[in-house]
Amino acid sequence: MRLLLLEDDALLGEGLRDFLRAQGHVVDWCCTIAQAQGMRGEVFDALLLDWQLPDGSGLDWLKSQRARGDATPALMLTARDLLHDRLNGLDGGADDYLVKPFAPEELAARVRVVGRRLSGSAKGFAEFGPVRIDLRAKSSSRDGQRIDLTAREWAVLEALTLRAGRIVPKSELEQIVLGLDAELASNALEVHVSSLRRKLGRELIETVRGIGYRMEKT
User: Fold this and answer.
1) Rg of the chain taking only CA atoms, in angstroms
2) Please, what CATH class does the domain formed by 121-214 belong to?
3) In terms of CATH architecture, what is 2-118?
4) How far is it, in rounded angstroms, from Cα 51 to Cα 59?
5) Which of 132, 174, 198, 199 is the most exposed place for a label (fewest CB within 10 A)?
6) Per-residue model confidence (pLDDT) at position 116
7) How high is the mean pLDDT in each 10-residue block of the chain (218 residues)?
8) Cα separation of 143 and 151, whole Å?
9) Cα 164 to Cα 128: distance, rounded to the nearest angstrom
């Protein structure tokens, strides 16, 4: 999943970024609301937001995003632990609320919940004919046989799985791939899609000419 982390504490921000990346996510870390504003137009699967930031309120920024029609799932990460704070956060547009200090493993688990919701499967997996994608275990299989994927192949497959049934623009998928390595070749996405088709079946990923790619559940 591609995550936007808005956290001004350098030690915590770096630690969460590295931990979530080790979990296979693509993480863009911003320390200020101004930096987050600069990401406008980018596509994320979830927002991880501190409340109190050097240049304003993370909750107020989320409210402005909601007013613009942005429905990206959002988790508040804050030391504000009073009941009315939790209620204000959830009523202000957050989908979840995690009080600091917290274990990174708990945050990762809550991000996995977001992934299950996005995929439309409470069980955490999706099936496309003979292909089964397990979002929790980050694994794939065909006809019951496990198929090993590289980190970049999985990033592309996961993005398509979370958006199953709709066309995903090539530029959106490229953001996910480039988030893992900014120095990839210009044809990196095509290479990964080709590899996924070879491993999991050519029928799995449809090319929508001039737009992007699509996976349809069967």
Assistant:
1) 18
2) mainly alpha
3) 3-Layer(aba) Sandwich (3.40)
4) 6
5) 198
6) 76
7) 93 94 88 90 88 94 91 93 93 94 93 78 76 86 92 88 87 73 69 93 91 84
8) 22
9) 10
